[in-house]
Amino acid sequence: MQHQRKKITIAVVQNQPEFGHPEKNRESVARQVLGRPDPSANLIVLPELFATGYQFDSPAEVADLAEPEDGPTFRFLSEISSKTGAVVVAGLPIKRDRGTANGALVVYGKKLLTSYDKIHLFDEERDFFLEGTRPLPVVETPFGPLGLMICFDWLFPEALRSLALSGALVVAHPSNWVLPFGPQGMILRSVENRVFTVTANRTGREERGGRAPLTFIGQSQIIGPRGDIIARAPSDSPALLVAEVEPEEALSKKVSSRSDFFEQRRPGLYTSLLD
Ligand code: ACM
Fold first, then answer.
1. Residue among 16, 14, 13, 32 at smallest CA distance from 215
2. What's the structural domain count of the chain?
């Protein structure tokens, strides 16, 4: 694919889904994304499980809301892509042979560029989802290599590092953050890998099956490769962030004339990482 060596427009959707109503939640996201006078963009990122809600009761309930990769959510993302010209990234429960993955799709026009099954499942997700077994993906797009990870993956530094080492300049990060330190933590992740990170989170509260309530912290954000907060959403209401960035800013890993922190890595000495 030919790279556009220029500024790109990124849109980040922060929504507040109603549990178990995927069609209604997709329609509400469509209004957010397409309601701008000019909805065109190069990259649009939606949250983890953006159309289903999060606090599942049982694996059977997850299976009921799960879709194949070419299901209604794929068709919805494809339509959003066609109407905006953007590469669209979103999280959803994906049907797999042995169960359901907490997955994400990257869609461009009518094409599925890649899918990903979350490899680090958070807390009760471990009761409901299969652990992903494929590496974190980096996919070619018209604006350069795009990496993908989901929510809790961020707390494993190896995840974003592996995406940056594979050449990602921009990393899409669909999330359902409940822990308070994600937004600040992602600033360091962006700096230590010199990449743009685009976190799409949700807001609202879920309290299902007599379990402890979950409050989703919003604060979707776009962070630059030097740690600048390019855009950040509020913690308690839906929002649409739109910003222009230049992905090539993430190409150089130099912090001084003689210090390139990718070239100077010493993987042979990080022996405990291999355990
Ligand atoms: C999370 O990984 N959804 C906290």
1. 16
2. 1
